[in-house]
Design a protein that fits this description.
Elements (H helix, E strand, L loop, with lengths): L1 H29 L6 H35 L8 H24 L1 H7 L24 H4 L1 H5 L4 H16 L19 H7 L17 H5 L23 H13 L5 H5 L12
Membrane topology: Multi-pass membrane protein
Protein name: Sterol desaturase/sphingolipid hydroxylase, fatty acid hydroxylase superfamily
Subcellular location: Endomembrane system
């Protein structure tokens, strides 16, 4: 099985590399400045660490979901309808997981790194905390208790995150009627904006309908200023990963905490 999976992983990485290369060429030809050398290498270093962390925490994640699935009196079958239900349920849970990550300081500690990028490009999509796998399965326990197959939950979450990779770009403009249902690059650019009008908006993963239902939707109406509201953080991948925890454990009266109020809710979550 490992020999079968290995080549596909390489092909996926090559595909992502090709897309990044195309975007770099587009940015250069259009003089968009979507890439900055040091930040790009920082993104790639964070990406490498995140890939390693997946091996460390994979067993733990499956164990958590498997344990609670075992407690459920329901055992839903494996078919296309149940997979569709699981996919929608996972996306709904992701919306709330993402939204809470912006308002609750302990979760923001994990999420801050993703919003610290000063440029929007495909490599910023993998600016993810190496320890996020510790908390992410906890949010999907309700799906397991509902009797949804654990493998469907895992696959749905993987596909959800894979879809979001394509949202981190300035190369795609608005997409008309699709913007009403799906999360798009335009909607996600808004989410990464530190402009006052964009703070704490567009938390959806695949679908934007949750934002519309719960009044967190904001269309892209002005140029987006990316990054934390405090500006540049670091090129050091270790600082990027750990800074959220440093802020979390600092005394509430610390000026550093007050100044780090996050992108949307950066380090100083709203109540």
């Amino acid at each position: 099985m490992k020999h079968q999976i290995g080549p596909y992983r390489i092909y996926i990485l090559l595909f992502l590399l090709i897309l990044v290369t195309i975007e770099i060429i587009w940015s250069w030809k259009k003089d968009r400045g979507a890439y900055e050398v040091k930040e790009t290498f920082a993104n790639l270093a964070v990406f490498a660490g995140f890939q390693f962390s997946k091996y460390l925490f994979a067993g733990y994640q499956l164990a958590v979901l498997g344990f609670f699935a075992g407690l459920s009196p329901l055992k839903m079958p494996h078919n296309v309808w149940i997979f569709s239900l699981t996919f929608i349920t996972v996306d709904f849970i992701y919306y709330w997981f993402h939204r809470i990550s912006h308002v609750w300081k302990p979760l923001w500690a994990f999420h801050l790194i993703h919003h610290s990028a000063m440029h929007m490009n495909l490599t910023a999509a993998y600016r993810l905390n190496w320890f996020s796998a510790i908390i992410s399965p906890l949010f999907f326990i309700p799906a397991a208790l509902l009797g949804l197959p654990t493998d469907f939950i895992v696959i749905s979450y993987v596909l959800n995150l894979a879809y979001q990779f394509f949202l981190h770009t300035e190369a795609v403009g608005t997409l008309g009627i699709i913007e009403r249902v799906m999360d798009t690059p335009s909607s996600h650019r808004v989410h990464h904006g530190s402009n006052p009008i964009y703070i704490d908006k567009n938390f959806g993963g695949v679908f934007i309908i949750w934002d519309r239902l719960f009044n967190t939707y904001q269309p892209e109406t002005e140029p987006v200023k990316y990054g934390l509201t405090t500006g540049f953080l670091s090129y050091n991948p270790f600082k990027l990963v750990l800074q959220g925890f440093v802020i979390w454990f600092k005394p509430a009266s610390s000026s550093a905490v007050k100044e780090s109020s996050t992108l949307p809710l950066e380090a100083s979550p709203q109540k």
